Task: inverse folding
């Protein structure tokens, strides 16, 4: 019996070594709680070895360990098992094989659980691949760069934005200058300039500079837009300005042969340089004389011709500044006759004419036509249409049996053409057998009894002052008129003057006396009746002055 404990000690010495090797291995994956049960059941299998049964009895009486924590906490507990096994070697010696067998089993189950979880998880859809961004390109060059103003220390320039900007947009502009004769360009603005106007300051008077503008964006710099000539930095005393007269602001019209003398004033300091063009070409000094002073320029043509018509433009320039103005000169003359004239139709007392515009309108529009006719017997021309605007007309009221010729003149603002176009045909108005029967009219009975349309009015007069009584009467046949005083016919008494003209009846009483007052009547009578009107005349005594009474 003494020989049996030795193998137990040998096993106890080997167990810590196995535990240390196991501890040196990588930490196994966390094990689920149910898989720790075989390690606790290992002492029950120890009696199979026989000799180890007495020593393992105390180990079986040890209290059971608490329920293992979840899988993520169970791993640290498994790491502490070598220290506990060192305290109780016999129990650990028997449990070691079981623990070593359980570990591979746990390691084999962990990958299987991960595979099932991977299969259960849904696959996420892949995002579409974005298209590559478009290449960044610079803009086109700015346009219309010119000088707006300048003085002895600064130059103001303005320009227009590029025609092509692109999708990258426009960050701004860089203004660069260089001295004339060099290519040493320097930017005058630190940051890109957003505005299309910039004032270049702090310049030296007398310098001659080249100026250009570059557009900048994410694609880089554009091609530069430079001034065509270098700019001289100096003060401009007075900019040039053309003062075009009001009568030249529209169209100046003159007749052929007229004398042209036009004065166009201007301002500017120092003396502006004056140049003239006609229709965009230099003037012919043989035809047009130009005389310029400090204040104006004179255009003189001794005898105008139609070829002198055109657009005249004056340009006054002071250094880099200039001003232009233009006027239209139109030289006109009488037009030519219409191109053709023909008789289209003749019927009854009418003739239809047609004609075409003249080939030469006199360098101005045609304002009308004049049509004349002539009887072939007499040959005298008479105007039947004047200032007529249409190209056809109907001439009426011609005499039956006569033959007529026709001619036409053109007309513009200068007058009527000197010659006329005559129709080749003649218009003959044929006689037709017309049986004219005048209508029968019944004579109207216009007989009417006398009727006074204006009656007599009461009057008052003074002794010695003549007076007149008036009335009007109508009737058919013409009524006979009689004047009466107090129902007595006046007759041919020379004191009274009786007049009856066109129904107006008057009775003049010459220098009435005190006994000429009374009731005056006028009676009109014809075959159809009579009528009478009356009035009262009062004759007053003239007032006598007190001196006359004495």
Result:
């Amino acid at each position: 019996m003494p020989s049996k404990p030795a193998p137990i000690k040998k096993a106890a010495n080997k167990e810590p070594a196995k535990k240390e090797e196991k501890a040196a291995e990588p930490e196994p994956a966390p094990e689920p709680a149910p898989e720790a049960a075989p390690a606790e059941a290992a002492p029950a299998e120890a009696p199979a070895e026989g000799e180890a049964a007495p020593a393992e009895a105390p180990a079986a009486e040890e209290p059971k360990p608490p329920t293992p924590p979840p899988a993520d906490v169970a791993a640290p507990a498994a790491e502490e098992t070598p220290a506990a096994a060192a305290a109780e070697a016999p129990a650990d010696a028997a449990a070691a094989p079981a623990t070593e067998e359980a570990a591979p089993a746990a390691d084999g189950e962990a990958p299987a659980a991960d595979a099932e979880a991977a299969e259960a998880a849904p696959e996420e859809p892949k995002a579409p691949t974005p298209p590559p961004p478009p290449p960044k390109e610079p803009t086109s060059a700015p346009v219309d760069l010119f000088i707006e103003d300048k003085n002895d220390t600064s130059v103001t320039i303005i320009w227009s934005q590029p025609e092509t900007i692109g999708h990258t947009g426009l960050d701004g502009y860089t203004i660069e200058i260089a001295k004339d004769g060099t290519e040493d360009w320097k930017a005058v603005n630190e940051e890109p300039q957003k505005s299309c106007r910039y004032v270049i300051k702090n310049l030296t008077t007398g310098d001659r500079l080249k100026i250009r503008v570059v557009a900048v964006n994410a694609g880089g710099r554009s091609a530069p837009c430079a001034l065509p000539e270098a700019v001289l930095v100096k003060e401009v005393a007075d900019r040039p300005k053309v003062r075009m007269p009001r009568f030249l602001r529209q169209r100046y019209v003159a007749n052929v042969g007229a004398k042209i003398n036009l004065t166009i004033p201007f301002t500017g300091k120092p003396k502006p340089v004056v140049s003239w063009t006609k229709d965009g070409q230099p003037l012919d000094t043989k035809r047009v004389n130009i005389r310029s002073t400090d204040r104006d320029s004179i255009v003189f043509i001794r005898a105008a011709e139609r070829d002198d018509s055109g657009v005249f433009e004056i340009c006054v320039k002071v250094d880099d500044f200039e001003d232009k103005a233009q006027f239209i000169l139109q030289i006109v003359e009488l037009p030519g006759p219409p191109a053709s004239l023909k008789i289209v139709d003749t019927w009854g007392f009418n003739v239809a004419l047609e004609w075409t515009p003249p080939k030469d309108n006199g360098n101005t529009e045609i304002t009308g036509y004049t049509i004349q006719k002539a009887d072939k017997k007499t040959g005298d021309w008479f105007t039947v249409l004047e200032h007529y605007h249409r190209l056809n007309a109907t001439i009426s009221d011609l005499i039956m049996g006569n033959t007529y010729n026709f001619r036409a003149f053109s007309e513009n603002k200068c007058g009527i053409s000197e010659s006329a176009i005559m129709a080749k045909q003649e218009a003959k108005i044929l006689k037709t057998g017309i049986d004219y029967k005048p209508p029968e009219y019944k004579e109207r009975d216009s007989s009417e009894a006398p009727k006074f349309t204006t009656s007599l009015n009461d009057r008052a007069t003074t002794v010695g002052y003549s007076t007149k009584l008036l009335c009007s009467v109508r009737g058919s046949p013409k009524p006979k008129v009689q004047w009466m005083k107090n129902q007595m016919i006046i007759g041919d008494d020379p004191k009274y003057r009786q007049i009856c003209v066109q129904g107006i009846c008057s009775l003049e009483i010459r220098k009435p006396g005190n006994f000429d007052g009374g009731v005056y009547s006028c009676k009109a009578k014809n075959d159809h009746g009579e009528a009478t009107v009356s009035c009262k005349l009062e004759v007053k005594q003239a007032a006598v002055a007190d001196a006359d009474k004495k």
